Amino acid sequence: MMSTNQLKYCFLYICLLFSGLSYAQNAANGKIIDEKTNKEISGVEVFINDSNKAALTTTTGNFSVQSDSIIYKLKFTRKNYAFETVDISVDNANNLVIKLSQEKVSSIEEVVIHNEKTKYKSKKENPAYRIMQEVWKRKRNNGLEKFDTYTFKEYEKIQFDANNLDSAFMNRKIFNKLDFIFDYADSTASGKMALPIFLNESIYKNFGENKPNKKSKKLLVAQKTSGFQDNQVITLTAKNLYRDINIYDNTLNYFDIGFPSPVGTDGFSTYDYNLVDTIAVNGENAYKIRYQPRRTEVLAFQGYLYIDTDSYAVLGATLKSTNKINVNFINAISTELEYDNPDNETFLPKKFVTEIEMTPFAKKKSAKSIIAKRSVDYSEYDFNRPLADSIFTRKKEEYDDSFVEKDEAFWATARPDSLSKQEQGVYEMLDKLQHTPKFNRIIKLTETLASRYYNVTKGIDLGPITSIYGKNEVEGDRIRLGARTYFTQNDPWRVEFYNAYGFKDHQFKYGVEGRYMFNRVNRFMVGAGTKRDITQLGVQLTTEDGILSRSFASSTVFARGENASLSSVNQTSVFTSIEPWKNFQIRVDGTMQSIKSANPDGFNLMYYQNGNLRKTTNDSHVTFSLIARPGAKFSQTGVDRYEHGTLAPTIVLKYTRGIEGLFNADFNYNKLQFMFYKPILLGSWGRTLFSFEAGKNFDTVPLALQNIIPGNQSYGLVPNTFAQLNYYEFVADTYSTMHIEHHFNGKILSFIPLIKKLKLREVAFIRGAYGSLSDDSKNINVDNLKYSAPDQQIYYEYGFGIENIGFGNIRIFRVDFNWRGNYLDRQDVSKFGIKAGFQFGF
Fold it and tell me: Which of 422, 135, 149, 174 is nearest to 273 (CA)?
């Protein structure tokens, strides 16, 4: 064993040795020559170690570099030369001779560089095609999947600018007393003004584990928003515009619309590629390939790819939409991507910048618009360090509003780059606007239109404003007035109520519900409510829980044929719910209700029980629900959350137990239900909406408690209903339904010369239902012969729709043409029908 003195001397020796090595290796010098001619070369970029920034650009053939840290590698790059990498040690740090070669730098037999688009007889003659083939062979995966554990920092900045402002616009009356905001505007290249109006900064810490168990966590550690901390509409809109993309995927997701990736394996079916140059990108030699869509009417990009000449990794890419982009409210999209490539199989995101130009009116470049810019910097990657299980546990403090509040000193060091003068002005300008009554009125109008509620005083909102008027056969004209409590976007409790009056039946209706959340981490919540109202039952199979869920009767203003099949419902419910795991909810509802026909002369809900004729169905039941939303993203942490746009599926499993005798309930019964919904991107062919439902009543129950295959006798678009079915046409103990709706995003109509100018989009759909109804379930109802299930064959409907109808960038109208496929011999069936409605989305 070494003595204490021996240890001291050994430590001193190691320190001296290390110091000597460091001194010897923190500087290097030499000359750079052409390998063939031996002539000195100038204009060479010299990179130290793995730095992405050149330490020196030579002006002669000699170089000399120094560093505060040990130099163990130098990289030399110059246009039209292969890059050269040299390992540096104590022995070779001085008087280096670097020879650069002009020889071919890849295994491709021939590289022809063109500055203009060149047409080839076949894609195999195109040198860009041969390069892209190598990229596809070496298709890389995100490096985060490679390591046992990983952590990294993510800095996100989102800014909105009002663009193309001119003096006439700035002199409008609306800006009276607000004209100081133009002091913060900035001149653009066109001579017009751009005014920053919103800035949001966020810093996340990402944790992940791949082995032994796969889990991840994205922790928001800091957030700063320019004056809109309490504005759920603007902040959510900003976050909701963007999706994470991987350039190697065949389809890139923008606004949940699929754009073909120029790096995808089927890219040549959409794009023309042209090799234009070889350049240095962050010290790496790269092919610069220009790509553009073969047809400008399709949803596709144009821009450049930067492909490493040795490893065929994507070092960077630019993606810019065409002038004919067919997306609602959007004039243009552009994205710049940078990647690090640690090895031959993986990549790591480095920086993404996306700009979206939005305008509701015109596609002209001169139109006044909003530029929404998002930049994300990924840094501080760390791999294979042990991570404690507690890191992945959701903690109470993470859901506190003050958790993300940081001072200016924190932000000054946390930002990868300092804010520009214009960006700094956003915070100052919006602080002033918060004290301007006119500005607050504009914000209030915006929030009212988006949330459908009008704030009358602190804590009280009136609405929803879209439910004020309705019409149906029983009530005639119907007026509904409601309100809710609303103090902040993260309220832990909410009370809502409404009153309604029918001018035909002269009856008042009401509903009230309260909810309280005890814990924001697992969203442990309780609630209770009661209502008395006229309702159209049978428009949903897997029904929404909650007293104030949709009342379909009040929303039907125009309908095909007369609808008298409405029910009068008195209902009281209590519930509790919890999320033991993220995006997985367990919910228990207890419901007591009485149901009878709201129009006995036109709609019969009477049934037999023990030989007695009953008009009212008394029911008490308990429902146990499992609801999964894997991949869903939400804003806010109160009783109400606002969901970000994703392609997350919805999976629901429900078991309902009816309890005879509880609060005078008439029936014992058991019901099991399942629902699955998923949007699916299918590359350049658009998006499919898939929905499947199945269920079974294990006991005999009257019509009021049965499963009704959802019909739609309105002229409006109602999801997951059958357009050509009448209400209560099909009733089933056991059922399964499927809805498949595909949005082509204009891919077919863009081939038709005259129609393509209208920028219409096509939709195709098919719906089916199958089920059975027992004789006992038929016989319990007075109108037993009237009800049947689609058990002879699968009932189906099919059709197509035209969407994106409108003008300018406002194209929110849709028309569907529906055909009934079978069961055509029934009385009062509608073989063909047209539905229409507004469809808000990109």
Answer: 135
